[in-house]
Every structure is written in structure tokens, then in C-alpha cells.
Amino acid sequence: MNLAEELLQDRGFNGFSYADIAGQLGVKNAAIHYHFPSKEELGIAVIKRYRERFKLWVNNSRIKDLSYPEKLDWFFNIYSDFRVNNGKVCLVGALEVEFNSIPEGLRKEVEYLNRETLVWLEAILAEGREAGAFQFKGTPASKAAVIYSSVQGALQMARALGTKKFCEVVEQNKQDVLV
Amino acid sequence: MNLAEELLQDRGFNGFSYADIAGQLGVKNAAIHYHFPSKEELGIAVIKRYRERFKLWVNNSRIKDLSYPEKLDWFFNIYSDFRVNNGKVCLVGALEVEFNSIPEGLRKEVEYLNRETLVWLEAILAEGREAGAFQFKGTPASKAAVIYSSVQGALQMARALGTKKFCEVVEQNKQDVLV
DNA sequence: GTCTATAGGGGGATAGAC
DNA sequence: GTCTATCCCCCTATAGAC
Q1: Where are the domains of chain A?
Q2: Rounded to two decimals, what is the model's pTM?
Q3: Which of A104, A172, A178 to mutate to test the interface with B (most CBs of B within 10 A)?
Q4: Fewer CB within 10 A of the end CB, N or C, for chain A?
């Protein structure tokens, strides 16, 4: 599942194969099929695990007790780590590009992960503005959508234009909301 | 080339085949290979044409003579049309997700298109702010990167969350720069 | 320019031995 | 749980007839 997650973020769902995983593990193709009968099930397992991880993180006191700007920083750092770690993109963006050619079950998981991330981001933007830590026009929901979509887009853009471009987007997003 | 462009925006470079194009044209696989010997050449031709089209547009007086807010609107409308027209995503985003598994020549074209779009957007943001039509913190370059990456991300997000989410991102982006 | 035919590779998935 | 072997499908690309 670790390898599947990395490959997914590196090449997309249709861009990696059972053989890629088996090869790196030093086992054969069929061994993976024993644990994940279909590729759809493998993909679903990876996203479910990711969703669970995100839920654990945001409910962890280490993150819950941060200030609002620090929470935003923590959020951006998830994606900075993706970028620094082999130029990965966000699972959500990768699967949405392939949305029309992936199994139905996978589409549902992508939708859930996307929604859950936006809900969290919207909440901290709303609370942070209420508390005077952030300032922005529009609703917390639409501001969350801009931030999340731009970070996803920026991870992709960085593949063509370099890491600096990604950092530019993060910094601009911060300036746009910090008081 | 029209079909290739649509398929590219629908399923990505690795998500469509010569057979898809041939089938819709009512010809055979090999006929396409006569005009575009390799898939890489087909992809390059599509992006080169797209770049040319963009260049013609922005140098056309119908767009050159618009006000700054109208120019920004025109820009957003390119992508709104993508969304409305069968939920397409931006060529650039689609190919960047697959960046690590597409031919080198295609990567170069994606880079050029990306740069050219950002250069134009940066210029109208800079001039528009100078002229008092826009207001934003940070540099025109980083603001352009946020807008462009968020629109790309929003086209993808809309596949999972619907067109409304895309419109939200566009509106929020406008609010963030219009005085 | 388009056709038929085919080469040659890779993919997901399964059966059955161990 | 993993292996070998294999099925069947789709892909890009080419050769040669028309």
C-alpha cells in the first residue's frame, strides 16, 4: 500500500501496474492479487487509509492545539512534503484528472477525501477569521476551495516549472489570508 | 487533432488511444499513424496548435482592447467553457499529472504553454494593479501562479464535487483581486 | 491516403502447484 | 501466501496491398 500510494502520486492510477509493486517488493504479480484481488480494491484501500490518516491527524492534540496560522502552515506542509519527496502530486488531483477512466468505487473515495479536506479547511478559515487571525473576502467555503485547488494545481505546475513555483503559490496564499 | 485535444482533456495522454480517434472518425487505426507517426508527435501537434491559438487570441484587438477586469473574465471563461463542455480539464494540468510517464518532447511543450499563460496573466495583473483596477498583496507573478493553479485545480475538483465548486473558485479569485 | 494484417509489448486477472 | 503459467484484452507501431 505504501508503494501503491507513492506510484499513484507519481504516475496516476492508470500509470502504474501490479508488476511495478511486485518488482519493488521482490515478489510476483500474483502475490499482490492475493491481497488485493482487483486494482480498484487496491486503490480504494489506499485512499481509505489516507482518509483515516488525515482524520487522525486533525483530531490529534498536536495539531488541534496549534494557532490558526500554524494550522494553515501544517496544512501547506503536507503538500510541501509531497513536492520535496520526489515531486509527488496530491492523490485527489491525480485521480480527478483520470476521473472518467477509473472505477466507480474509486471515484466515490476521491469525492469523500476531497469533501473531508475542504470541510476541515473551511472550518479553520471560518474560526480563524472569527478570531482575528485571518482576513479575506467571500465565504470560508469558497476561500477553502481556492486554497485547496491552488495547492493541488501548484504541485502539478511544479513538475513543469520547478519547486520554486510551488513555494510561490503557498506564500501568496498565506499573504492572501493572514492579517 | 480536435478529437485528440478533447480526449486529452477528458482522459489524459495515457488514457486515450489511436483507436478512440479512428473509431470516432470512421477510419482505421493505421490512417492516423500516416498523419502522426507516433503518439508523441500527435500530442506535440495538439499543444503547439493550442499555444498558437492562445497567442492569436491575446494579440487580437477584441481582447487587447478590453478593460482589465474584462480581460480577467475572458481568461476565466476559457476554463468555464472547458467545464461546461463535457467537464474537460486543462491540458496543462492533465499532462502535468502524467508528467513522469509522457515523452520528453511533450513535457517541453507543456512547460512552454504553462510559461506563456503565466506571462500573459502576470502582465495583466501588473498593469491592472498599476491602473487601479486590481488590488492584491505580493507580486503579479505569484498572484498569477495562484490564479492559474487554482483554476486548473478547480476544473479537476469539479469532476468530484460538481460545477458549482468550480464557479465558487472563479468568483473567489475575482473577489480577491478586484478593487 | 486508407486499408488489412500483424508484430511485439504490457496490462489485469485467474488456476493450480507448492 | 507465494509461485509458475497462462488467458485475454488493449496498446503503439509497421509492412505491404490497393
Answers
A1: 44-177
A2: 0.97
A3: A172
A4: C
